[in-house]
Amino acid sequence: MSADASEAIASEAATQSGAEVLLRALRDQGVEVIFGYPGGAVLPIYDALFKQNSIRHILVRQEGGAVHAAEGYARSTGKVGVVLVTSGPGATNAVTGLVDALMDSIPIVCLTGQVPTHLIGNDAFQEADTTGITRPATKHNYLVKRADDLARVVHEAFYVARTGRPGPVVIDLPKDVVIAKARYAEPATVHRSYHPQTEPDPGQIAKAVALLKAARRPMVYAGGGVINAGPEASALLTKFVHTTGFPITNTLMGLGAFPASDPRFLGMLGMHGTYEANLAMHGCDVLLAIGARFDDRVTGRLNAFSQGSQKIHIDIDPSSVNKNVPVEVPIIADAGRALAALLAAWHADPTPVDSQALTAWWRQIDVWRAKDSLKFTQDMQPGSIIKPQYAIQRLYALTRAVKQDIFITTEVGQHQMWAAQHFRFEQPNHWMTSGGLGTMGYGLPAAMGVQIAHPDALVIDIAGEASVLMNIQEMGTLSQYKLPVKVFILNNEYMGMVRQWQELLHGGRYSESYSAALPDFVKLADAFHAKGLRAQTVDQLDEVIRAMLACDTAVIADIAVDPRENCFPMIPSGAAHNEMILGPEHEDQAAGVIDEGLVLV
Amino acid sequence: MPNSIDTTLRSATISVLVENEPGILARVVGLFSGRGYNIDSLTVAPVDAGGTRSRINIVTSGTPMVIEQIKAQLDRLVPVHRVADLSREGPHVAREMALVKVLGKGEARVEALRIAETFRARVVDTTIESFVFELTGATDKLNAFIELMRPLGLAEVSRTGVAALARGARTI
């Protein structure tokens, strides 16, 4: 085997078509499933798919659904998700999913058809400049112009997608290239230029341990990078927290990297994070960030973010370090490798921690915790309206009895935040949500991809009625493949998060945020050969959840929830961590928060 | 500790060694426009025998944190081999070339030629009423020359942008 991908030795004469070589390369990369939708430019590939049995193709109902499904597949398995779409509109429909995967660092290889090479640039039917359009939407992309390059490019694409900070890669495939005879090439051992650093610098690890040992008010802030580093990284994170006794918070993307039931866990942080997590971030003196990128939803107002802390930042992507927040000790590494090195260095260093200061710090955290910032009031009288938080709490409670593995996906909005707050995750790769891009319509197709990867698991899309309609066509895919995904809709008849911001910040002018003319979701489920259920009052909720869980087909459970409920706690845009709105009783002060900075400690 | 961020702008000359493949320039330029960074000048050409690697020289400006970001963002592009901030990593030489067309007759024309000699600019084309000067040097020198030509009949300027190398034995 050659040491250089560009010179990968063709192992045999060209007897197979480009499409066949493509599928062989996919097989050699361990691909079992492709999510896709056929069209003119990819017909030769679909023909080759027809003639083989080792790769399964899942026919989605719109290409956007294919990418989200592949994301769900990738996030729940740690493998690369694979998508196949046609040229032109097939490719442009995939763009949202690609950017979603880019923002959330999800490994995807997306094969797009293209018009034959001699027509490229001629405005041919279903032609789009796919590599041009997807250049800023992907980690990398390729246009294959020679059939003999196919295998090499596929191997390289998988390497790029999963190496370093993972991300989506597009391979644009002109029709003549997949028809022509092509020679196969084995994967090359070394990439020409892309070699991200994964091992931490021991000097930086030593500096980090010195800071952590001396910390009086330490805080661990762990994100999706820990999950991307594999389940071992999450196990090491748990071990590190137990060894040090430090408090820990997870980002939206990091939920499950540390068990939510552990007393060291302060809940999610950020705009809708818990009071204790945000105030601990605000008040800590040493902050250890692992695989998290100081996103604006996490930091709030930057110049007020954790001002008194020295910061250690472990990230595999050097561009994530010192981007938003300057840090004292940057560590460029894989999260798992860095955690292993930190643990070893921690044990090797005999310096004791300041246990008196740590005890005082935990006492302070417990005071913040006692605020119970996720509290809400549910009227339990029969006939009472359901609070959305209560619906998720009951869903969580009733799924405890289920023996299956449980995976949760969400759409985007209030329901997503309530799910993050009230559904508790004990292990990584079981929570799939669109964090960076915030793509409404993500949850249903993502759940589909999760269910394909885990046929025997319980997969629930916690949805909003507005979001779910953005990719509702994928109910057809659920039906075709008999995927028993449960769509649990918190139906408040509003684009709830839009409505919330309009209420708090725009004088209650609910401009275009009411979901008028909603479908009857029970009938909709029926039309798609699924089971439809509805709960309208609190006394019906448990029964509907139980019926949903007992059903062995796809279900849409339409849960009518309080349309006026807002998602709290909340750090309004432009406010600092210690300027949270804790609940409805403080809502009227929200407008003032933006200008003056309301301090609610 | 307190978030003390240096907000002074500085100019940086960044050299990037890339795999010479289709779309690489679009990737680099798109990164700058997409993330709101400045490009003051940009040059690119293959620099190895087989034409497989190109060197891109970019003159940009920003706060120290932004310049670091630019380097990190460039470095994570898949076809990028090396990124170096020449203005930071020791002394360097940076040169560009300009072709400057000056129209005029009489005293102004004589004066233009005299200044051109002082700047060691070469006349590469001439007619009775025009000169095209070729001038190589640091950006400041080119700017100074062009400003002097302005009242003397400056008609058109074409500049290459900066090519740069580290001084001494260092390579990127």
Strand order in the largest sheet of chain A: 3-2-4-5-7-6
C-alpha Rg of chain B, in Å? 19 Å
User: Cα distance, first to last residue of chain B?
Assistant: 33 Å
Helical residue percent band of chain B: 25-40%
Can you count the helices of chain B? 4
Helix content of chain A: 25-40%
The coarse overall form of chain A would be globular
- Poorly predicted runs of chain B are none
State the low-pLDDT regions of chain A, or none: 1-8, 591-601
Average of per-residue pLDDT values of chain B: 95
Average pLDDT metric of chain A = 94
Count of extended strands of chain B: 9
Number of H- or I-type helical stretches of chain A: 23
- β-strand amount of chain B: 35-45%
* Protein structure class of chain B: alpha+beta
Q: Tell me the major beta sheet of chain B.
A: 5 strands, antiparallel
**Net shape of chain B:** elongated
Task: Name the chain pair whose interface involves the most residues.
Answer: A-B, 32 and 26 residues
| Structural class estimated from helices and strands of chain A | alpha/beta
Task: Summarize the SSE layout with pairings.
The complex is a heterodimer of chains A (601) and B (172).
Chain A: E1 16-17, H1 18-28, E2 33-36, H2 43-50, E3 56-59, H3 63-77, E4 81-85, H4 89-104, E5 108-114, H5 130-134, E6 140-143, H6 150-162, E7 168-174, H7 175-179, E8 181-182, H8 202-214, E9 218-222, H9 224-228, H10 231-244, E10 248-250, E11 265-268, H11 275-283, E12 286-290, H12 296-299, E13 310-315, E14 329-332, H13 335-348, H14 355-369, H15 388-399, E15 406-410, H16 414-422, E16 431-432, H17 443-453, E17 458-464, H18 465-468, H19 475-480, E18 486-491, H20 496-505, H21 521-527, E19 531-535, H22 538-550, E20 555-560, H23 590-596
Parallel strand pairs in A: 2-3, 2-4, 4-5, 5-7, 6-7, 9-10, 9-12, 10-11, 12-13, 13-14, 15-16, 15-17, 17-18, 18-20, 19-20
Antiparallel strand pairs in A: 1-8
Helix pairs in contact in A: 1-2, 1-6, 3-4, 3-17, 8-13, 10-13, 11-14, 15-16, 15-22
Chain B: E1 10-19, H1 24-34, E2 41-46, E3 53-62, H2 64-75, E4 80-85, E5 92-103, H3 106-118, E6 122-127, E7 130-137, H4 139-149, E8 154-159, E9 163-166
Antiparallel strand pairs in B: 1-3, 1-4, 2-3, 5-7, 5-8, 5-9, 6-7
